[in-house]
Amino acid sequence: MTDPLQWARYHWPRLLSGAGRNDGERFYNYSSLLLCGKKPSQTPKMAGKHRVVIARARCFKEEYEKTCGTYMNNRIRTTKYTLLNFVPRNLFEQFHRAANLYFLFLVVLNWVPLVEAFQKEITMLPLVVVLTIIAIKDGLEDYRKYKIDKQINNLITKVYSRKDRKYIERCWKDVTVGDFVRLSCNEIIPADIVLLFSTDPDGICHIETSGLDGESNLKQREVVRGYAEQDSEVDPEKFSSRIECESPNNDLNRFRGFLEHPSKERIGLSKENLLLRGCTIRNTEAVVGIVVYAGHETKAMLNNSGPRYKRSKLERRANTDILWCVLLLVSMCFAGALGHGIWLSNYESVPFFNMPEPDGHSLSPALAGFYMFWTMIILLQVLIPISLYVSIEIVKLGQIYFIQSDIDFYNEKMDSTIQCRALNIAEDLGQIQYLFSDKTGTLTENKMVFRRCSIAGYDYCHEENAKRLESYQEVSSEDEDLTDTPSGSLSNMTKAKASSCRTVNNGPLKSKSLNHLAGSCLAVGGEDGPTDASLSRQAAFSSPMETDVVPDTGLLDKFSQITPQLFTLPNETDQDLSTEILYIIDFFLALAICNTVVVSSPNQPRQKLRLSSLGRMPITSLEEIKNLFQRLSVRRSSFPSLCSSKESSSGGPNAFVSRLSLFNRSKLAPPAEEEDSPLGDGAPGPSEATCLKDPETADGSPDGSLDSPLGQALALDLHYEAESPDEAALVYAARAYQCTLKSRTPDQVMVDLAALGPLTFQLLHILPFDSVRKRMSVVVRHPLSHQVVVYTKGADSVIMDLLSLASADGETLEKQQKIIREKTQRHLDDYAKKGLRTLCIAKKVMSDTEYAEWLKNHFLAETSIDNREQLLLESAIRLENKLTLLGATGIEDRLQEGVPEAIEALQKAGIKIWMLTGDKQETAVNIAYACKLLEQDDKIFIFNTPNKEACEMLMNKTLEELKKDIQRPPNGLPSCTHVPQLRAGLIITGKTLEFALQDSLQSRFLELTGLCQAVVCCRATPLQKSEVVKLVRNQLQVMTLAIGDGANDVSMIQVADIGIGISGQEGMQAVMASDFAVSQFRHLTKLLLVHGHWCYTRLSNMILYFFYKNVAYVNLLFWYQFFCGFSGTSMSDYWVLIFFNLLFTSVPPVIYGILEKDISAGTLMQLPELYKSGQKSEAYLPLTFWITLLDAFYQSLVCFFVPYYTYQGSDIDIFMFGNPLNTAALFIILFHLVIESKTLTWIHMVVISSSILIYFFFALVFGAMCVTCNPPSNPYWIMEEHMMDPMFYLVCVLTTCIALLPRFIYRVLQGSLFPSLILRAKHLDKLSLEERNEALKKWKEARTVKQMTTGHSHPTDALERRINLDPSCDLSVTTASVDSKQRDSPTFRATLDITNVSGMAMKTVSSSGHPLQNSIQK
């Protein structure tokens, strides 16, 4: 590691991924770097509406300078300061705070001789100290960013040089738009690059985006169409095309543009052709591209503009009270000015101490009073606590440290703990009133497990697979981790061990070779095996529970009837069975093909399995072999920089065949040129059997299918990199039925299907999933029928509306499809009732003419820049219609551990929980019951209306019903009995939610939800989620928290007062946008109930204490003005006056704010109702603030007048009188904190004792050394004389006792006579373990009895009501409690019949049992 270049190459991936870092090392990733903040002055320059990119070549030099020369270079700067502007800019930013401006004004005011109160230097001291501390903090943070920027900007990449006519090494900061960049395997992408060449024979490039969004699964990017077929690397000197694309923006999932050749031919560009800065090249030896966005104009840098600043509710409240203190200060200064003027007016002649002006005139009493007003402002400035802001920041840092140090938040399986990304809103965790939660991945594990399927109207329940899943619940976590291999099989465990034996992974430096550190992949596939530590980890969504699917025996029997004759000679004797078999084949082909899964091998992690071409490439002559060798030599000659270690490490026939497959392009021949075999290219040939067999398995099955040992090994040796757990679950389910996805390229997909052998589908087009269409489609050419087939999967609510109503084959198929549709719908409803996630699978057969016509229009949409999304949507709709329903799937997403208990505790804490999900109604409601969001006795209202008028009508009648239930006493109870709010739940669909969010219905919607304990919003879009959170937060003025795990939850997380991201399997988008990040939902309980409560009470009491101590001490100066003619004189030395708040009494409240614990964590967890005190802001109410100020006034009166009357008539001077006041005030303020503290540790005692000792030490040293420090004042030997006077001690003790006696008595009476819940719970912590457990048991029993006596709102027998809405709208509600034995029986039904204007009737039937019995008819 002597070469600095290799050092930088090595440390850049470590900064991004943290792979192989030591525990003591600082962890940075690319997303955290982006959050460090951007240089504000480097705002992206928009080059008009579109951006034109010209290659940086000799022939385009002038045109390049006119266009690309104005774009930003690739240098990044996330720092705010430089050496020259640090002081002025930091001061400018700090003086944006009103408090700093206020104290700056006082400093300037004190320089005016007429109103000067202190020495000029003394007045500046507090402000200088505060500004210096904050400046040091900002400087250190900015310096850390500078070092990271320097490392990144000086990383090396290969850029084409016009002068040298070759690729040379250049720093990232020197890369510009229009440069050609050549990247190697495992190298970080330095800028946003359009991919023009890849060494992959299929023209694809695999990237890993974990450094950008946290997703570890691979993603494919494609070479621009037209360049993938080139056999040689693109030559920058011959590149004459121009790129026109959209201006820089922060949308990571969108890229619009086109590449225009000199012939004016345009080729559309999309995100599939764009390599984003911060991603990593994987599984591709080398790629070449042209830079389109650089530096701060890249999507990665634009996507994060720095950390968001949120102001907590407590801080806003404190700012309001500071304004009250300012008003109090002005009142006191006005009183002082008025008193000074009146006092001067009482003199008939000019008093001797009133010095005249140089012209001989004296100030009038009115003008002297005006000047005295400003003098009093300077004197009483301490009333505004300048150190409060610094103390708050220190306390919040301490609180964050303890939250992150809590071992209960550590997730051993994920090796992660809580992340506190927002440092200034920790106290808001203790005041949450509404919680909005996503479902998938937040409440559930996001481990999608294939459970059931329906094909051609037949339901396959997979009972054996269900038993397998039950066994996973019984095994311990250690056993699960032990068997956590990519496929969960014994063979893979053996191979994993063998692979690990070849990999040296003893440290961060030994886990990678120097070649890897240099950014190449020369060692990939070498004899040492995989050496990249980051590649050895398990792919996402590949736990044994997800991958090992046990087939259904009935469906497996039908699979055994699959023969090639089904496609050639239909069996007319059993036409129905043949049709069903064809449905089954198409169904599983759709599961295997309709996705974006990347296939790799676990023995060489994340290396593509190159077997896709063998099944369709019979080598029939030596001439073909010769031609292939010629192409091989041409291809290799174009890569002189690539090492031959890969070839040398593998030999024999298998290596030879792998070489051949590298150059078998993905373009398929026309149907007429296919092989003569009835199975087309899917028929296994002799060459296939020869190539695929291992010498040790030569006696195996000749067909290479899954029935042979070799075929089984190949099926197990597949590694699927899926972008979502749903895709992975379906692909693994298809593999369980021997429909195995073998390989995928941009132009073809290979599937090994049972007896049919390997089938290679020409991949014509992919329409990816989006939240608008809610479906995904692939267009392929079937290798057997040679037809163009569209396979579609998506939500049942969408697919059912796209099915064909008429069939060209006659009424028989039309009737058959109708029956299949009805049966499948019943199966879907049954799946949803069991809490399964449902998807529908459909297909469509197109003629070549139809497809060519559609492709022509779709090409126009792809090459459009403006309004591109709308055009692509319209094109997709034209394709995805008249579908044939194949079947449906049911996938289980299990609840996370501890979710029901967490939700139960949060509801007891008074938090209203809303579930916002995109799943269908039945699935969402069933999960709501399973996680105890809805109780079995709840009264459920389901809103699924077709229009706004019906929604409004239903809201009105439901509100009336709920209000009647609240007012109506239950049977058998007198009318005077108090009945609390009825437990009700609201379920609303996305369509109805759209109506409810309109302005005219918002108030009624919020009133209705306020009467419900839980709300479930299903079929909700990401935009609707954020709108719901914003509506509740703004209209109800409540504290909101949003929690989610995916990119669709980002907007909701950002809108809420507190956003929490779950670092699950959906990447890191939610975490990057959140304020706090946890690994599981159950951690939310302790985060809110314990740390939230502590943070709120600590900071509330500390802020109140700051107001108290400042007002109490400043009032001593104010009372003294009554005895000095309101002259603005102080009875203490100015240095003592400044240091009293800045040094002597500043540390104890900070320690109090960090370490105070009013109740133990165990008690707070067992008694969630204690959290309600924070929701009501009991610790910091306006009344509490004013009582604190009154107490401060009282204590200041005592502190002043007890020494005053003690020394009245004596001959002590002004400082001899002020010294007992300062000493008594110090004892009063510190012991006041002791009374308020609920927890006193040795740290508290040491800090308080140190404050007292520092005060006496300073007073003694200052009094002994400062003879003429502040002329004409002389504090010499004052403390020394007082410490020898017994009266001094008596005054201090007596004053302290009298001042604190009322507060002490109040606290004693409060704890004895009228204790709050907090004080009662505090008493439990003092008991022994047995007594505490018994007391907690009695507490809970007493609370339960109280709730039962006042909260029995409905009898257990069914109570039926009927509400007549109008002649066209009828609502029937039946409620009943559900016994545990009656969970599967529909004991509670709510029926809604609505006929709208068009005459359409909708009926919704729901049940409160679990699982929910629900059916919908339209």
Describe the protein in words:
- The structure is a single chain.
- With 1418 residues, the protein is α+β, with helices and mostly antiparallel strands.
- Helix content is 44%, strand content 15%.
- Strands 14-34-33-32-15-28-31-30-29 form a 9-stranded mixed beta sheet, sandwiched between helices. The protein has a 9-stranded antiparallel beta sheet with strand order 17-16-27-26-25-24-23-22-21, sandwiched between helices.
- The longest helix has 39 residues, at 1083-1121.
- It is elongated.
- Residues 1-48, 475-537, 569-573, 603-714, 972-980 and 1350-1418 have low confidence and may be disordered.
* Strand coverage percent: 15-25%
- Average pLDDT taken over every residue: 74
Give the termini separation: 70 Å
In DSSP terms, counting alpha (H) and pi (I) runs of 4 or more, how many helices? 48
Radius of gyration using CA atoms only: 38 Å
Unreliable stretches: 1-48, 475-537, 569-573, 603-714, 972-980, 1350-1418
Largest sheet: 9 strands, mixed
Query: How many strands?
Result: 39
The largest sheet has its strands arranged as 14-34-33-32-15-28-31-30-29
Secondary-structure-derived class: alpha+beta
**Helix percentage range:** 40-55%
Tell me, briefly, the overall form: elongated
